[in-house]
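Page 47, continued from p. 46.
Same chain as before, 239 aa.
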Amino acid sequence: MSQKVKSEETHLQETRRKILAAAVHHVPFDGWSKACFDAAISDSGVSADMGRLAFPRGPVDLALAFHKQGDVLMEEHVPSVGLENLRYSQKVAALVRLRLEVMPDREVVRRGVVLFALPAHASDGASAIWQTCDLIWNTLGDTSDDINWYSKRTILSAVYSSTLLFWLGDESAGQQDSWEFLDRRIENVMQFEKFKAGIRSNPFAKFVERSAAPFLDRIHAPDNRSNVDLPGHVSPNQS
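Result:
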């Protein structure tokens, strides 16, 4: 019986898993640094060349892989949350909470926040949070294709980021203070949505909305939503 030959991508995925599993033991002491990256390669038994091939930017790509692993874990645990009987705002809060709770070590997450706070890596951190919030909306069945696609993810990114920072410093039992903080942030968003709905009855607001509508209606979400690295598109003006 012949042994199945691994593809290059499968080999790289296994390499990344091995290095990442070894790295989390070093991150609390060394952060997401070159020292951590080198130690993880050594502990994993992977060659240095393979390590650089798996993570071309070293510790930055390693930290991003850790964040992505959290997204995967969240997806796997969604069935255990019981979203069916929740209001929509509660579903959003439940998934944000789940995303934070699947993290095995807050100190490892804290070190990632420090790394992505650096100007050189801030865009990587923002992109990672955007991907998480995109996943949350997609999990909830969001089908928006216009400017609402962007606004939903932008607002949730702000909610997620502020809750993450609160959670990192929360010493309450079961991080209950963090979940109450999250509920307040979600409630603020809901109040803002009600405010927007209310001002639409204002004659001036209606005029502004009508004026902007021809352009806003032409804005669409990216075509490839599974890996959003580029902005969406504006449809040609047919008039």
